[in-house]
Amino acid sequence: MIKINKGKRFQQAVDAVEEFLRRAKGKDQTSSHNSADDKNRRNSSEERSRPNSGDEKRKLSLSEGKVKKNMGEGKKRVSSGSSERGSKSPLKRAQEQSPRKRGRPPKDEKDLTIPESSTVKGVMTGPMAAFKWQPTVSEPVKDADPHFHHFLLSQTEKPAVCYQAITKKLKICEEETGSTSIQAADSTAVNGSITPTDKKIGFLGLGLMGSGIVSNLLKMGHTVTVWNRTAEKCDLFIQEGARLGRTPAEVVSTCDITFACVSDPKAAKDLVLGPSGVLQGIRPGKCYVDMSTVDADTVTELAQVIVSRGGRFLEAPVSGNQQLSNDGMLVILAAGDRGLYEDCSSCFQAMGKTSFFLGEVGNAAKMMLIVNMVQGSFMATIAEGLTLAQVTGQSQQTLLDILNQGQLASIFLDQKCQNILQGNFKPDFYLKYIQKDLRLAIALGDAVNHPTPMAAAANEVYKRAKALDQSDNDMSAVVKRLWLCPHPPTGTRA
Questions:
Q1: What is the mean pLDDT of residues 299-320?
Q2: What is 368-483's CATH number?
Q3: Residue 142: is it exposed, middle or buried by C-beta count within 10 angstroms (0-12/13-18/19+)?
Q4: Predicted TM-score (pTM) above 0.70
């Protein structure tokens, strides 16, 4: 499982699994020894129930002697027969029963389940009480490591049936729902069990990305206060245990760490500097984490005003889309206050599969724009390829099948192509936002006198798609701009 490439909590979870397996192996050996003893006792009982000829008496005597030698006359142990009847009498009492009772055939061994240990019962209290642990004979749980059970139970809401399935479960995501419901998929499949911070968390902005982030913060046990410009979006999260903040300033003043995720540089500045904004709630020790995708100049300005009031600042834009946000599988790019980055550890584990610390403020903004520039340009190229295939009489589905078998194969490629072929442009990443990121990336290149011709060409295609009222559709709707292009006759050049 390559623990060295994983986080500390993941390594601890794997260590717990390995320790559990070692203990289980030892108990399997003990169980095999006990099973042999039980078989000897049953054979002895059957011999006693038969007519006592001379040879049979000698066999019975030898069998009884073997049982006494293996078990020890002074040890107290529950026999198989008494276990089936729920009795706690020792072996000696079982041996004193009448021949008629000793000769009774044993009941079905399926009743010989191992009782649930106190360590498992402890895990099953509190927020884990919704799970129902169902141990089986092949699944020894007595005296097992409680950390292992917490890790295992966090993988699924269905009863765990075999610990060998953990490796498989780590690679499986929940079904796609596209919903901002609190029942978003569990990120612990990657991160292991999460211990939520005891700090009070605030969150400003419940859009496509923010809704999934807050869902996972609540699901992992964080105390969260929410605010959104459209207050109705807060209702779902209030029902699930979040607190409502009336203004950004109130959220910041009542919370230890406040996250924000809004659409663009103007919205980010208004949130901090506007009436009843974040800046009015900042005082020494208060922490502000901006997760919006903005330019480096904007984030630097916000950092300066926050720090000037004694606050602590971290930028942490996220790479992903609505589905990855719901699944807790975002990639987080952070820069700024390193101590605040560490304080956000449990929050970042809840909302993402990995995080990067990139140094001083502005670095994360630059890296995020470059990432989205590549993504936006790739999406425009995918759309261009599909439309060219259509115009030249080639099957678009066959093109997708070929791409999926080659080096370009990816979930992104497959999902976006399938959406285009099905005419489904429900937003997973708004077209208007990828165009905004392309524009900011081009400006970043201009600031350092570096050409970005591919991004510039893609930006023009998205701008045209926005003019065709595709702003609030998914970025894959850029294909509509290409569908509507006039095509010259085959064999000519435009």
A1: 97
A2: 1.10.1040.10
A3: middle
A4: no
